[in-house]
Amino acid sequence: MPHPVLPDLERLAQAAVVATGFELKGVHVFTHRIPMTVQVLVQRADGSDINLDECASLSAPLAEAIEAAELLGDAYVLEISSPGVSDELRDDRDFRSFRGFPVVVLCRDNQGLEMRREGLLLERDATDVHINIRGRTQRIPRDSVISVCLVTPSESD
To answer: Is the pTM here over 0.70, yes or no?
Structure first.
């Protein structure tokens, strides 16, 4: 069953996306996540994917529109993505821009075996990458991190 505010969110997203020259591909509300995730999928009018900086530039105007409309009373994460975006976060700017976004961290454990951790990005500091996994903060030492990539949450998560 769709979330009751989905049509209003779609209307707000459509207005914000069109103003930037992009095309809205979908809006999803994942209420099973804590906090809830509002995912907005966007691409260029020619069908090509937008880049991470373009996703980040849409985040503030859309968040302001959602807040002004007072649609969501509970805490939420706003994720702006493109159907094909699953890019690796590389520099400090990426980690600041995508705080709160779903990520997969590929890392090595103490025995050198590869592990995959999925959660919401909290921050990256001088020593660790911090992610939220089911409401608990996990610190992953930077020297064990292989990659940190944005992901699109699935309905089954």
So the answer is: no
